[in-house]
Specification:
With 279 residues, the chain is an alpha+beta fold. The protein has helices at residues 6-49, 51-77; strands at 99-101, 108-110, 121-122, 132-136, 143-149, 160-163, 177-181, 198-202, 209-213, 233-236, 242-248, 259-262, 271-276. The strands form 4 sheets. Strands 3, 4, 5, 6 and 7 form a 5-stranded antiparallel sheet that branches.
């Protein structure tokens, strides 16, 4: 191109370059956009085909999301303690500025609460201080303030047991229990010592017994701890433990037809468990 042609060419570029530039830019963007879409699809498809990569990305993301949703839903639902209720009466700040009181079958937040200490005689379910409830004493017929616990938790420590009838003064019953001293009992006649919802359980290989809140596992069903069994049962076995029925040696008919009462090494004197009769 000659120098004298440059100004004319420059004018041509000035006139047409913007249109060409816009067209080229649009085409470029379309191609880039199309390539981006293709890359994304290819990447997703790669993850679809590559199970480990797909699972690692998607599962972790889902797990984090699910965890957050589960936590949020639990918080939103105001999930209460295992023994039921709107709040945990063992927690002094469960209701903020008010008190979590067990005065009916389930604890709830209340504006007022009592102040009587553990062991004090009480007349109304709400008379006792924080963490306590007024339980009916079957022996005296009076109400006694006692430390609340939920069966299976560690509230009572090693020296006490979470037990009792679950009956509050006034007659209401609750899933909650209270901390009691260890009570040895008679496996054949648990009613002599144990409360209505308790059983007398053999707790070790030496035949020691305790009153504990009874479980629901019936004879022949699996168990892990003594009180997993229903009242009248014992958790026995070496590897696969199951509930067996406790019986009195002098009353073999208690085991039913075709069975006998057979003493075991752990059986308290005069007792055994029901076994099939010998041929």
């Amino acid at each position: 191109m000659h120098e004298d042609e440059a100004p004319g060419y420059a004018r041509w570029v000035a006139a047409w370059a913007p249109l060409s530039f816009r067209t080229a830019l649009a085409l470029t963007l379309a191609v880039v956009g199309d390539c981006s879409d293709t890359a994304a699809v290819g990447d997703d498809a790669g993850r679809d085909r590559d199970g480990s990569r797909y699972d690692a990305i998607v599962t972790i993301g889902d797990a984090a999301s699910d965890g957050a949703q589960a936590d949020a839903s639990a918080a939103d639902a105001g999930s209460g303690p295992a023994c039921g209720g709107d709040c945990d009466p063992r927690d002094p700040v469960a209701c903020g500025s008010t008190r979590c009181v067990l005065s009916t079958g389930a604890p709830e937040c209340a504006a007022d609460g009592g102040s009587l200490p553990a062991g004090a005689v009480c007349e109304h379910a709400g008379d006792c201080g924080p963490g306590l409830a007024c339980f009916a004493d079957s022996a005296t017929g009076l109400g006694v303030c006692a430390e609340l616990c939920c069966p299976g938790d560690a509230t009572c420590g090693a020296e006490l047991r979470c037990a009792g009838s679950g009956e509050l003064v006034g007659g209401a019953t609750t899933e909650w229990a209270h901390c009691l001293n260890v009570r040895a009992c008679d496996v054949v006649h648990p009613e002599y010592v144990c409360a209505a919802r308790e059983g007398c359980f053999i707790i070790d290989s030496d035949g020691h017994t305790e009153c504990l809140i009874a479980g629901a596992a019936l004879e022949g069903e699996p168990c892990a701890q003594p009180a997993d069994c229903a009242a009248g049962g014992v958790c026995t076995g070496i590897r696969d433990k199951t509930c067996a029925r406790v019986c009195a040696i002098d009353a073999p008919r208690d085991c039913g037809t075709g069975r006998r009462c057979e003493a075991q090494a752990y059986s308290p004197p005069g007792t055994g468990i029901c076994r099939p009769s010998l041929p």
